[in-house]
Each structure stands twice: as C-alpha cells, then as structure tokens.
Design a protein that fits this description.
By secondary structure, the chain is α/β, with parallel strands linked by helices. The protein has a single domain, classed as 2-enoyl-CoA Hydratase, Chain A, domain 1. The protein is about 40% helix and about 20% strand. The longest helix is centred in the last third of the chain and has 24 residues. The chain is globular, with a radius of gyration of 18 Å. The two termini are about 25 Å apart.
Length: about 230
C-alpha cells in the first residue's frame, strides 16, 4: 500500500506530466479513446472523450485488450453524458478492473458520465478512487424521458410512467451500492430538473467518496483521510 506522501508525489507527477499534453477536451458526438504519455511508472493513462451511445463498454474493452495486464490504468473522462446503461456498464467495469477515474481541469463529466466516473477504484489499495480536479465539472440531473409522444395521458399511462421511474431509481441505488458510493448521491439527480444540470461543489464531492486533486499544488485530498479523522475524534 502506498503511503500518503508517496501517493501525493505520484499525483503531482501526473499533473505535471499532463498539463503540457492536455488542452480542454471538447465533447464530440461519439466516444473517442486515446492514450497519454504521463511519465508515471507502471501506469497507463487513457482519455475518454465524447457522448455515450450504445457500445462504449465494448469500445473500451477492445481498446485496453492489448495493454499489459500488470499496468494500472487511469482514465480521464470528458463527456456530456448519454446512455445511462452504458455509463453504468463502464462504471461497473472500472470498479471490477480497478481502474482509476479522473476529471481533469477544463473537462466535464455529466449525466451518464458521472455514473461511469463513480466506478473508479485504486489498483493497489482496491479502495474507491475517483478524482475530481479543481477546474473540472461533475454534473448530475434527474431522469430524462426521450421520445415520449405529446398526447393526453390516461391514469394507466401515468401509473406506468411512475413504475418506470421507480425501477430507474432502484437501478440507480443498486448501482451506487455496488461501486461503493453513498446512496445519498442519488438525491443529486432527483433534486434537479431533467433539463438542468447540477455541478457538485468540490467540498461536497468529498462526502460522496470523491478525491479532490489541486491542479496548482498536486495535492490529493482523500475522503478516506477525513473519515479516519472523524472516527478518531469519536
């Protein structure tokens, strides 16, 4: 297990190695995957940029299939969202494969991308590790219906819509639990209009198990450190 000082040095190196290589990524219609040379030992840094449609999990698995199995993977996410199913599938895979997720300064990860981001995990400690950099945006919103016809709705129609919302909420809760995210996270979406986007503050992100990377100093603030301090205080 890496000591805190060593982990801070590693992430400072990550910042220094990528600032020159990265410009703010523009979200494109389809997912694009790339690889950066960040100079980190035994680590592969990938970029995932664009909207989630219907086969992102297959694209990602195919992309990393040739990477050495002894290398840990860090993924930089920049996406306005898209398919919730694909976002959660990616998040589950990130968690199972112990892939760290990062939102870098100038990038945004919204809607379904936030689900994928929350699946990040540390390859060494096996603890959740999803990192929001200062200057990055992590966004949530409520359910959004697509392709719903404009027509008079009967009581049965409304009951079916209510049932679908309940199922979606349950799936969301089950997903968060499976990737070790506090279930309060679901309220971030439910408390926001479907057409709006709520960007979480960095201090609040810590409460959701998200680490904060200061891109100026390279300092990584871990929610685990804060939790230990609170337990010690009790």
């Amino acid at each position: 297990m890496l000591k805190t000082s060593k982990r801070a040095t590693i992430w400072a190196t990550l910042v220094a190695g990528m600032i020159w290589a990265l410009t703010p990524l523009s979200a494109k219609a389809e997912i694009e995957l790339g690889q950066l040379r960040a100079g980190l030992p035994n680590t592969v840094v990938l970029t995932l940029n664009g909207s989630f449609t219907d086969d992102e999990i297959l694209k990602f698995k195919s992309f990393i299939s040739d990477l050495p199995s002894d290398k840990r993977i860090v993924v930089l996410l920049n996406s306005p969202g898209g398919s919730v199913e694909q976002g959660q599938s990616l998040g589950r895979y990130f968690y199972d494969a112990r892939i760290t997720t990062v939102i870098f300064a100038g990038s945004k990860c919204q809607s379904a991308c936030s689900d994928a981001f929350l699946g990040g995990r540390d390859a060494v400690t096996k603890q959740p590790l999803r990192i929001l950099s200062t200057g990055g945006l992590l966004g949530f919103h409520n359910f959004r219906s697509v392709g719903v016809p404009e027509k008079p709705y009967t009581k049965a129609d409304m009951e079916e819509r209510s049932r679908m919302a309940q199922v979606a909420t349950y799936q969301w809760l089950e997903y968060f639990e499976s990737v070790e995210v506090p279930l309060e996270a679901v309220l971030l979406g439910l408390g926001t209009k479907a057409e709006d986007m709520f960007h979480i503050r960095e201090a609040d992100a810590l409460d959701l198990g998200v680490s904060i990377l200061n891109t100026q100093t390279g300092r990584l603030t871990s929610p685990n450190q804060l939790t230990k301090r609170m337990r010690t205080g009790n």
